[in-house]
Amino acid sequence: MQVPAYYADTYEERARTRVAATGERDGTPWVAVEHCLFHPQGGGQPADRGWVDGHEIAPVRDHASGLVVAVACGETPLPVFSAGQSVEVRIDLSVRLAHAALHTAGHLIEAAGRAHGWALAANNHFPGQARIEFTAPTPDARLDTPDGREEATEALRTEVAKAIAEDLPVTAENDADGRRIVHLAHLHSASCGGTHVRGLGDLADVVLPTLKVKKGRIRVSYNASHQERS
Prior knowledge:
Layout: E1 3-4, H1 5-8, E2 14-25, E3 28-33, E4 35-36, E5 50-52, E6 55-62, E7 67-72, E8 86-91, H2 93-115, E9 119-124, E10 131-135, H3 146-165, E11 170-174, E12 180-184, E13 188-191, E14 203-207, E15 212-214, E16 217-221, E17 223-226
Parallel strand pairs: 1-4
Antiparallel strand pairs: 2-3, 2-8, 3-7, 5-6, 5-8, 6-7, 9-10, 10-16, 11-12, 12-13, 14-17, 15-16
Protein name: Metal-dependent hydrolase
Keywords: Hydrolase
InterPro entries: Alanyl-tRNA_Editing_Enzymes, Thr/Ala-tRNA-synth_IIc_edit, Transl_B-barrel_sf
């Protein structure tokens, strides 16, 4: 049995657990642990960086077993593990928090866009590529001019900054169908498999350059980081 601990606590950095299973994926050995700290790539978010007993690994979703498995990162193979073996697992918390901040900021920008009547069309929460794309059910004349696009972007910035200043909570729960729903207080709810900060006050350096309109889509690029709290 494997517990996706990355959902329970974004901020958990290390743990002592046991090997749940071992196997091979495309000829590459893998190990899966019971208390899994490692978030695999998916949902527009990159994978964590992690270690099992000091060996650097890359987490991937193994569709055959349904487990998140750890494969060797680089050319050095993993040692031989056995089911039930006690191991220490660890993630690079700075990388995790960078991903969580970008993912949460993306949801917040989506909420601000929806408040303008826009519908989500696509998203990407990767560092250096983060953006939210919308479609507008009815034409928005403001977006036809540079000044109008800047005005619309400034409205988004204001709404995002207000929510961060209020430090609205970020929570998650499973619905009746087993889907994980992430809530930004009263602002936004969405089915999501990513990691998130515990409150919007954890977001820092949220930057939204002037939005662009391409092929009928409103593209809002952004950046964000995690703010340390005392």
